[in-house]
Amino acid sequence: MFHAIQEAVDVLENPEQRPAAEVRRAYERWMQRFAEALKTPAGEAIRDWGEHFVKITQRYWPGLFHTYDVTGLPRTNNALEQLFGSLRHQERRITGHKVASPSLVVRGAVRVLAAVLTRVNPPTPLQLGEVDPVCWREERRRLGKLRQARVMQRRFRQHPDTYLAALEEKLLKLNLPP
């Protein structure tokens, strides 16, 4: 029976990098063989566990094979957590900080995506040169606004009286006639 489990692992590891539809069909065939094996006297010892496994697999079936269509995307939650952990580790090594920088959270949509994509398919100098400067400037402007908001939050936390006095002064200048 344990060789059957190893067979399922081999199908899901997909070393041939087959598309999701092929992996799904191969796993469906395995599931049918596994369900039949549970009905035999040899499968009696693990029948309860096996039936539970089949039931849970059927519950998750609609979303089970999406990752096979995206090259380099981790197939399990553990693999995804390992990817994010290695990104945090890399960030700490680059910055010299003990924890990941707050900008990883603020700019995470850009930085994590860039880090993952460059691991899967490193860009060539020609690809880097094809970036639209207008889009790049707009993205930098958007990220600058997010950074400014974070800076203001930090200033308020560190020196609330000074921050509020400066804010009141700005408000009075706006309301007073010239």
Protein described:
- The chain is mainly alpha-helical.
- It has 3 domains: 2-69; 76-124, no CATH class; 131-178.
- 72% of the residues lie in helices and 0% in strands.
- It contains 9 helices and no strands.
- The chain has helices at residues 2-13, 20-38, 47-60, 77-95, 102-106, 108-120, 125-129, 133-158, 160-175.
- The longest helix has 26 residues, at 133-158.
- It is elongated and about 90 Å long.
- The mean pLDDT is 84.
**How many separate domains?**
3
N/C terminus separation: 86 Å
Outline? elongated
Structural class: mainly alpha
Q: Helicity level, as a percent range?
A: over 70%
- Indicate the low-confidence ranges by residue numbers: none
Number of strands: 0
- Largest sheet data: none
User: How would you state the average pLDDT, rounded?
Assistant: 84
Count of helical segments?
9
- Written as H for each helix and E for each strand, in order along the chain, the element string is HHHHHHHHH
Strand content: under 5%
What is the radius of gyration computed over CA atoms, rounded to a whole number of angstroms? 26 Å
How would you summarize the topology of this molecule?
Blueprint: H1 2-13, H2 20-38, H3 47-60, H4 77-95, H5 102-106, H6 108-120, H7 125-129, H8 133-158, H9 160-175
Helix pairs in contact: 1-2, 2-3, 8-9
